[in-house]
Design brief:
Layout: H1 2-7, H2 21-81, H3 87-105
Length: 106
């Protein structure tokens, strides 16, 4: 048993660190560079999150606009059924042409 205890003797390592202005400036430069890189990466990830949110918002806006356009087209067709001519028939024709072109575009 005694032989094993002697293997676990206390080992003391003396390390001497000399602080000069050069080492302080170098350490500050390394810390500053690290902080700069981390803040840049944080902004970059924030930008990607913002783009994702904008894409979702744009998709919702497009869906709402398509519903509104179909509602306007229905109103114009209702007016046309009641006998209103002129700009109503032109509006119907333009809306249908636009919707047809957009359907074939995407």
């Amino acid at each position: 048993m005694r032989g094993r205890r002697s293997a676990f003797r206390k080992v003391v390592i003396n390390v001497q660190i000399t602080l000069t202005w050069q080492t302080v400036i170098t350490a500050a430069a390394i810390v500053g560079a690290f902080v700069g890189i981390v803040s840049y990466l944080k902004k970059l990830f924030g930008w990607f999150d913002k783009q994702e949110q904008q894409d979702k918002d744009i998709k919702l806006i497009k869906e709402e606009q398509s519903i509104l356009v179909l509602g306007v087209l229905a109103c114009l067709r209702g007016l046309a059924e009641q006998g209103v001519d002129g700009p109503v028939t032109e509006g119907i024709a333009k809306l249908e042409a636009h919707l047809n072109a957009r359907a074939h575009q995407t």
